[in-house]
Automatic annotation (TrEMBL):
Protein name, as recorded: DNA recombination protein RmuC homolog
InterPro entries attached to this UniProt entry: DNA_recombination_RmuC
The entry's keywords: Coiled coil, DNA recombination
Any single Pfam family the record assigns to this protein: RmuC
UniProt similarity note: Belongs to the RmuC family.
Xref: PANTHER family: DNA RECOMBINATION PROTEIN RMUC
Signal sequence, renumbered to the chain: none
Biological role stated in the UniProt entry: Involved in DNA recombination.
UniProt KW Coiled coil keyword: yes
Ranges in coiled-coil conformation: 43-75, 268-302
Superkingdom of the organism of origin: Bacteria
Length: 342
């Protein structure tokens, strides 16, 4: 029902009441008064029905509104829970970002210090070598006969011989090369980068290549795939020059492959050494077997001689037994003196 209908009915009731009064004043008939009274009663009944319907509809609307409010509260509570979970995730991510930022800052501080950066390269080198080679196949901070000390010496048999590995990290020159925006600055950074690598190659070639003591080649380990990739991609002539001087430049992935090859060489050398030891033991076992055969032959000769002596002893014993039996078989009378004594 429209909201404007009950006031209209009330207004109509007042109009009818006014008409009734006017008719009464004018002295009209009783039948008209009765009809007007019936109309007023009908309007009052209709108004009561409309009031009850309005109350029922208001209660329905209140119940519907309450249900909607409950649903909205439940949705709001769920949304608040989801928002709280997302806030918890955001807080955890923020904490991780802060921890990562502190770690990045610590890493930047480490990389900014040359000694700490060198230690980081040595640690990475240690992890790679210790992961792929047995403990007896390498030595750390090994001092060579010329007094120099390399980061790692891998004990390969001749040929090729022990291989020295030295870790270098030319971070400043590479960083300047990556950050250079102008051609002039990039040229200067490239020249500095090439000079640093060439100086490291010269040091390794002069210090760690000793005839008769080490192999004819050594390894320059760059503990950064980015630096290694930049060097091989843009400065292949420098890599070839280093190889001609007996220095092979490797990164983490290439060093891992090289160490796998060295692991196979060490395994083959160990198998050959064990084969030589087995051969030596077999030869010694053959000598002992020959010595045992000689002694068995000598013992067999002694045993044959003993058997011959036993046969001769048995023959002599048989002869003695036969002679004793023959003596017992002789009937020799007693002498006269023996009979007189009886």
């Amino acid at each position: 029902m429209p909201d404007w209908l009950p006031p209209t009915l009330i207004a109509a009731a007042f109009v009818l009441a006014a008409l009734l009064l006017l008719l009464a004043l004018r002295g009209r008939g009783a039948d008209q008064m009765a009809r007007l009274g019936a109309m007023m009663e009908g309007l009052a009944a209709a108004q009561d029905r409309l009031a009850r319907q309005n109350e029922e509809r208001l209660r329905d609307q209140e119940r519907s509104l309450a249900a909607r409010l409950d649903q909205a509260a439940a949705r709001a509570q769920d949304s608040a829970g989801a928002i709280q979970q997302r806030l918890a995730v955001i807080d955890a991510a923020r904490a991780n970002m802060e921890a990562l930022g502190s770690q990045v800052g610590a890493l930047a501080a480490v990389l900014g210090n040359k000694q700490a950066r060198g230690a980081l390269g040595e640690v990475q080198l240690r992890d790679l070598v210790a992961d792929r080679l047995p403990a007896s196949g390498y030595a750390w901070q090994h001092t060579l006969s010329n007094g120099t000390r390399c980061d790692c010496l891998i004990h390969l048999p001749f040929p090729p011989g022990p291989i020295a590995v030295d870790s270098k990290f030319p971070l400043e020159a590479w960083t300047a090369l990556q950050e250079a925006a102008e051609p002039a600055a990039r040229t200067l950074a490239t020249r500095r980068f090439v000079q640093d690598i060439r100086r490291h190659v010269a040091d390794i070639s002069q210090k760690y290549l000793i005839a008769g003591e080490t192999a004819e080649a050594a390894l320059l380990f760059l503990p950064s795939e980015a630096v290694h990739a930049t060097l091989h991609a843009s400065h292949g002539d420098l890599v070839a020059e280093a190889a001609r001087r007996g220095v092979h430049i490797v990164g983490p992935s290439t060093l891992w492959a090289v160490l796998n090859t060295m692991r196979g060489l060490l395994r083959d050398a160990r198998l050959q050494d064990e084969a030589r030891r087995i051969r030596h033991e077999v030869e010694a076992l053959g000598e002992e077997t020959e010595r045992l055969e000689r002694r068995i032959a000598a013992l067999r000769g002694h045993f044959s001689s003993v058997q011959q002596d036993l046969r001769e002893i048995e023959l002599t014993a048989e002869k003695i037994v036969r002679r004793g039996a023959a003596i017992r078989a002789l009937d020799i009378p007693d002498p006269p003196a023996a009979r007189a004594a009886e």
